[in-house]
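Q: Joint fold for the lines below.
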Amino acid sequence: MSASSSVVAPAAPPQPARRRGGALRRFARHKLAVFGAGIILFLTLACAIGPYLLPFTDTYIDIMQRFAPPFSGAHVLGTDALGRDMLARLLMAGRISLLVGFSAMAISMVIGITVGIVSGYYGGVLGTVLMRFVDAMLCFPSIFLLLAISALINASVSSIIILIAVTSWMEVARIVEAQIRALRARDFAVAAEALGASDRRVMFRELLPNAIAPIVVAATLNVAHAILAESYISFLGYGIQPPTPSWGNMLDSAQSYLTSAPWLAILPGAAITLAVTSFNFIGDGLRDALDPRMDGR
Amino acid sequence: MTQAPARPAAGEDDVLEVRGLNISFHTPAGEIPAVRDVSFRVRRGETLALVGESGSGKSVTSLGILRLTPKPPFCSISGQVLLRGRDGTMRDLVALPEAEMRGVRGRDAAMIFQEPMTSLNPVHRVGDQIAESIRFHEGLSRRAALGKAADLLDLVGIPDARRRLGAFPHEMSGGMRQRVMIAMALACEPRLLIADEPTTALDVTIQAQILDLLRRLQERTRMAVIFITHNLGVVAEIADRVMVMYTGRVVEQAAVRPLFRAPLMPYTRGLLRSVPRLDFAGLGREKLAAIPGTVPDPLEPPPGCSFGPRCGAFLPGSCDTAIPPLQEALPGHQVRCVRWSALTGEAA
Amino acid sequence: MIPDMTAPLLEVRDLRKWFDGPRPGLFRKRAVVKAVDGVSFDIRHGEVLSLVGESGSGKSTVGRTVLRLARPTAGQIRFAGDDITSLSRDALRPFRQKMQLVFQDPYASLNPKMTVEDIVGAPLEIHAPELSAAARRQRVAETLALVGLLPSHAARYPHEFSGGQRQRLGIARALIMQPQLLIADEPVSALDVSIQAQVVNLLLELKERLGLTILFISHDLAVVGHISDRIAVMYLGRLVEVAPTRALFTMPRHPYTEALLSAVPIPDPTIQRERIMLAGDMPSPLDPPSGCSFRTRCRYALPACAGAVPALREVAPGHLKACIRDDLHLVAPTGLDA
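A: Joint structure:
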């Protein structure tokens, strides 16, 4: 028998991968999620490219056209109290709001995953202390925390992002902790340990990829949460400061004209609603699509 | 459906007759034929062992008899399952409405499973669980039903039965829980007991206790037993007749002794040879006669005999043309192999 | 350096592994589960020693503690002469290459998110990070061939394989660093009968070819009888009998072994034998009986059995038992002659 030949007859070829791409297919079946994904894609592209295509910039003041209602003239979505083009402002504000949403999500994910994986993997005193801290943070009404801190600090886009991130990582930490704790006891994690793998390798190569589904879902919902949180703070005047537009502060400045020029409030309100519900739909869709129980094997 | 009274084909002693049973699962990937054209009978006091590996359809067959397979459109059943009722007539369970089926399960035919913990409700005391089934089928009072439950626990060898009525399932060992399941199954004195791998999760010493219990209960009640297992040692010990299944079809059926002494189907022969035997232990370490390969994908069955690709006696041209019929090779000994007579000739 | 082939590769002395049990009451002392309570054995180079017992006997805990996946409560583990009982994780790493584990459940033991190449090649990444990707791929392909799989399987994921093939993958992962000791924890009990035989054959072939030493942990006496040189029988955390395979099956010396052998069904309907039925279940390890822990189910028990834990002592060459009754003539329930 030659050295390279096997000692036994080769086993039959593996069964074909029937469930390949199953997650994508299941996501596609979720109509609302597909709709939401389309909206987010559209919003992102519009905010990124749109301002370059419009005849007006968001800061151009057309003093002759103050309070122009939508669909009435050169300004498609009308103008605000200073005669600035609403569409241009909406798109520029969208850049800020989406930036805040995605960045806050990214930072909160990093914090949440790190805390979750460390406490889930090591457990013991360290895990208990970390998770009790998470519980304490969760007990605190985060909206008041947000408002209190933002009233104290000098509000800027980056400070608002960090502020939202540090008040919204706890759910992620809990999800990751529970996942990692369960996965830790699985045989393949023990196998990695028996091979002499380092803690870092076990945590990030072996365990984390198996917890990715709930993390992705949480991330999506976190974007929605961050957009909403930014709107609250800005609406109450503690957030992104004019002239930098955000959907929240546009809503804030529209308050005085609710009866005379309702579109000033309706448009940013609709943008917020659309973005937040879209992310929530995507989250739902991903939850179903990535659920291993739907996988059949 | 009541228009299926005593059929002439069914012998007086038959408790169950299955004719041409087909069960398919409908999945997004396609239709999976889990059970194909399965026919058999079980007589009073007889134990029929259903043997096969995973994917053979043995468990699905047993679930199909009691219509415990998933509901349409996920799963479809066709064929006939004739079960003798209390009045002595044979009724076709496949055609029975679900409401009447509920009265059959647990009363005319009962089932026990591999893992009793999942079939027992963890939040109810075992006494109440047994009593509830008795009350459902026999309309006894709670008190009388509990009394009967205690008798049953006593019957299945649970010491201090009356006190054990108040125990929760998790307070019992695996063997004890399986005894409770058997007690529940026997509560209404069914004519047919279907036991799906009832000892697979148990240790050998406990397995021996449960097999012994089942044997004694059967002698006493003369019930028919369908015993599903992959363990050939257990088959040799408990079965009167054996039905071997592979990829959803019956491939061999015979009384237990001829089947073990002179199996006709190459698959059966391979199975028997691949089992390490205690009575040969330590005699030297020659290789076990493993069957090469694996069970084929049910969605892409090989042409002709489904065991062909793993069979040492595979003959191109005769084995891969059509699915071999199940033939009566010897009286009471059926085999699904076109080459059985040639192969036994070689062996002799 | 040529290792001394007569010296044991693995020496286990008085190994104990106790776990915290449930607290019986709010202010009561926590109970202790003595999962392994004073186990000693050796495995020589190239030998297959089987550890047999029912669930709850502590046999898997012995395997994992020997591999130092759990810290022993007491005792000593020496691997090739080196004491590894209390080495740190880092100090253990070189030993991890030399002793490997094959798991029972081929579904749970392979990371579903990793390809076969990553799974089987993981030990190389850990212990030989200097190896190039191409060289690593080559080693993975060779190891896959060794266990009867194809190099083309390397790009696939575990769920694309059947149970038997997955177990081959688990074996490939364990063998890629060419370990000296393989601990196989119920490696075939989750597999179908015909596949079991394939994997048992594979392990035997690999043992011959690679000169492996194997600690085979199983509840299946028939499989164990086929694969082992010696067998150690465990009951409630202790060894009750250790003997060469043939001697154990033909001349069991401990009543528990006798009952265990008697309970195994033999696939031959013509064999008629009287069965020794053990009453009841194994006692709870939280509250084991005093003295000999088997005495509550033993048909030969005497009042003296409750006294002290019987020592495991040699009663014939290479045949050890832990039972005070030397007057017994136990039957070989298999119908085998000595």
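Q: Anything notable?
A: The interface with chain C takes residues 4-17, 19, 186-188, 190-198, 201, 205-206, 209-210, 212, 297 of chain A (CB under 8 Å). Chain A has one domain: 23-54+77-295.
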